[in-house]
Amino acid sequence: MHELSIAMSILDVVEEESARHGDGRVAAVHLKLGPLSGVMRDSLLAAFDLAREETPLKDCQLLIEEIPIVVYCPACEMERSVVSIQNMCCAVCGCPTPQVLKGREMEVCAMELCQ
Question: How many domains, in total, are found in the chain?
């Protein structure tokens, strides 16, 4: 389960950033996660819960914003959603859409600090 190593890396980043801001208590970490990132949301949440035990971040929550897959459709010449993760075709016209614009994200985008 590679989600555990990812959770531990997230905690490392948060601890470093918290230290730069005066070691305030971290209430939450906000993460953007796309379906093409290769990371399972529920597995990451479980791994995060496990990894934060016995650390200064034991009360910290992981809040995940799920980012949908968005592609550029060459036929419509617009950004569009896809039919499904297995069928990377424009949801409007059905044209195959190889240019993925969003959906690969796995990004710590914010953290909430309490004093």
Answer: 1
One-letter amino acid of 33: L
Please count the other Cβ atoms lying within 10 Å of the Cβ belonging to residue 49.
13
Going by the DSSP 8-state scheme, the letter that residue 68 receives in this structure is P
34 falls within a domain: yes
- Is 83 among the domain residues? no
* CATH code where residue 42 lies: 3.30.2320.50
27-72 pLDDT, tens per residue? 999 999 999 999 999 999 999 999 999 898 999 999 999 999 999 9
C-alpha pair distances (Å), 59 with each of 22, 55, 83: 18, 9, 39
This prediction's pTM: 0.86
Separation CA 97–CA 113 (nearest Å): 41
